[in-house]
Amino acid sequence: EAQVTQNPRYLITVTGKKLTVTCSQNMNHEYMSWYRQDPGLGLRQIYYSMNVEVTDKGDVPEGYKVSRKEKRNFPLILESPSPNQTSLYFCASKTGTGANTGELFFGEGSRLTVL
Amino acid sequence: QKEVEQNSGPLSVPEGAIASLNCTYSDRGSQSFFWYRQYSGKSPELIMSIYSNGDKEDGRFTAQLNKASQYVSLLIRDSQPSDSATYLCAVNPTNDYKLSFGAGTTVTVRA
Question: Chain A residues with CB inside 8 Å of B99's CB?
Fold first, then answer.
């Protein structure tokens, strides 16, 4: 089954404790991206990657890191989480990197709470 | 000014009626436009894409695009309770690979 898998789905952590949210897709997609979703603000892009070893900042990259060492995986790293990073996070992927190329497939979301 | 703005909700419509959702965008050179549906607690899923001016119909859904007015809309005909969800408008800005999303409009279809 074609899917984007995120882990963990739910996480409560404390300020400053490094964490990683994993994302894996099995559709051989070139493009992968991370979004956060907050009430009233919609989906905001954190980072995206157009292929292995190619990553770029989205609209709200501060406080986050990513890596793309393999095509299927795109982990999101919070080196020192803060309460303002409490949010619902979505990983997404699509085939191709042009603007009109393909539907964006989303993972099920990871709800993160930073105390 | 936000890149993508949607009419504020929530929007409540009776079963069988037409739900009309509106979206405006700021980048005049945008070429790709999408409507995603998101049920509560779930991830967004694509329901419509439109790339050229005019109407595009898919079942009970019709997307309308007017690039001159920088406006895209979604009509849901014969609304069903299963259409109750948040609808997200998404736009590809010029020469940019990202999708910019609106804040969403929540639709409730009452029986």
Answer: 45, 104
B8-29 in b/e burial notation, b at 16+ Cβ within 10 A?
eeebebeeeeebbbebbbebee
Of A41, A99, A109, the CB nearest to B92: A99
B103–A41: do the CB atoms touch at under 8 Å? Answer: yes
B51 at A interface, C-beta within 8 A: yes
Q: What does the pLDDT look like over A48-99, one tens digit per residue?
A: 998 999 999 998 999 999 999 999 999 999 999 999 999 999 999 988 666 5
- Token pair belonging to B102: 């609106």
Give the torsion through C-alpha atoms of A104, B93, A57, A89, to 10 deg: -40
The whole-number average pLDDT for the span B28-42 is 92
Beta bridge pairs of residue A71: none
CB-based contacts of B3: which residues, under 8 Å, 6+ apart?
B25, B26, B27, B91, B93, B100
Chain B segment 7-46 residues within 8 A of A by beta carbon are: 31-32, 34, 36, 42-46
Q: How far apart are CA A8 and CA A26, in angstroms?
A: 18
Name which of B93, B7, B29 is nearest A99 in CA terms: B93
* Cα(B39)–Cα(B43) distance, integer angstroms: 7
B85-92/B100-101 β-pairing: antiparallel
